[in-house]
Amino acid sequence: VDGRTGVSSERAEPAAFSDWADLFTLLSDRTRLRILYHLSQADELHVGALCDRLEQRQPAVSHHLSRLRAAGVISARRDGKLRFYRLLPDRVRSVLRAMFDGEAAAS
C-alpha cells in the first residue's frame, strides 16, 4: 500500500488508460460531439456543410476537425478545393470495446 495515497500499488493501471483519458477529454467538447453526431448521420460531409449544421464559422469548425483527425476519430479527403470528413467508426468502436471488454473490465 502506498503510504501517501493509501492505495494498493500491487496492480498498475493499464497504459491504455492515458489514451482513453485523452480521447474522453477530446470528446468532452460539445461542438466535437455535435460534429461526430452529424458525421455519423452521413457518409461524409465537407466543412461548409458542417458549418451550416453547427451554425459556427469555418475557422472554429476546422479547429475541432483538426483535433478529431489528429486523434484518429475521423479521416479527411480533398476533392478540388473542398475537404470532406468522415467518421472512422472502427476506431471509436475499438476504443469502446477495449475500454469495456478489455483491461479495464479486468480491474
The string of secondary-structure elements, in order, is HHEHHEEHH
- Kindly name the structural category: alpha+beta
What would the principal axes of the Cα set say about the shape?
A: elongated
Question: Per DSSP, what share of the residues sits in E-state strands of 2 or more residues?
Answer: 5-15%
Helix content bin: 55-70%
Unreliable runs, pLDDT <50, ≥5 residues? none
According to DSSP, the number of beta strands is 3
Provide the gyration radius in Å. 18 Å
- Termini distance? 17 Å
Major beta sheet summary = 3 strands, antiparallel
Report mean pLDDT, rounded to a whole number: 82
Tally of helical runs: 6
Biggest β-sheet: strands ordered side by side in the sheet: 1-3-2
